[in-house]
Amino acid sequence: MILFIGSVRVLSLVEGRLVEAMLGVRMPRRPIYADQHLPLMTRIKEMFVDPRTWATMLYMLAMCPLGIIYFTIVVTALSLCFGLVAGPAVYWIMPGAGSYVHFGPWDGSPGFASFFMLLIGIIGLFATLHLSKGIGYVHGHIAKHLLVKEARD
Q1: What is the arithmetic mean of pLDDT over 49-56?
Q2: Residue-by-residue DSSP string for 49-61
Q3: Reduced to 3 states, what is the DSSP secondary structure of residue 107?
Q4: Per the domain annotation, does 8 fall within a domain?
């Protein structure tokens, strides 16, 4: 149990450096060890009663569902955008290859409908990139508040 708690604390330092490097969120430095002059059993006790240890465990536990949510949102949005961009391109390259596009009152005019599909796909791609940046911003602040003591700027 002591090794597990110690490894979680070390992994929190590594995770803090990763968040700082990849997301640009400033993570205050935290020493790996408590006071070196204290006896070993006192340091172990302080490790167990430190609220940052338990906040770090909460962060590590939350990474599984959050990672799945982040991945699902970004992959779904990118797939939809690339499909909207590629659909008209395939139609223009091979006009008889796909199904006929029905787009509201412009039935019978696949060129006009495919222009809107292409436009929506390109706008959606840029919106997805901004969404990814926003997810990174929120995740960086979650990590900052759960992994370090001095979370206030």
Answers
A1: 86
A2: H-HHHHHHHHHHH
A3: coil
A4: yes
pLDDT digits (tens, 9 = 90+) for 104-126: 555 555 667 778 888 999 999 99
Asked, for residue 50, whether it belongs to a domain, the answer is: yes
- Whether the CB-CB separation of 51 and 147 falls below 8 Å is answered with no
Q: Does a structural domain hold residue 152?
A: no
CA dist 60 and 37 (Å) reads: 30
Do the beta carbons of residue 66 and residue 146 sit within 8 Å? no
Q: Give the CA radius of gyration of the chain.
A: 25
Which residue range(s) make up the domain with 57? 2-147
Count up the domains in the chain and report the number: 1
Please, are residues 27 and 19 in contact by the beta-carbon 8 Å criterion?
yes
Give the mean pLDDT of 41-52: 84
- CA dihedral defined by 82, 88, 93, 96, rounded to 10 degrees? 120
Mean pLDDT of 21-27: 85
- Total-model pTM: 0.73
Mean pLDDT of 27-41: 71
Residue 153, domain member (yes or no): no
CA distance 137 to 24: 9
Q: What is the DSSP letter of 100?
A: P
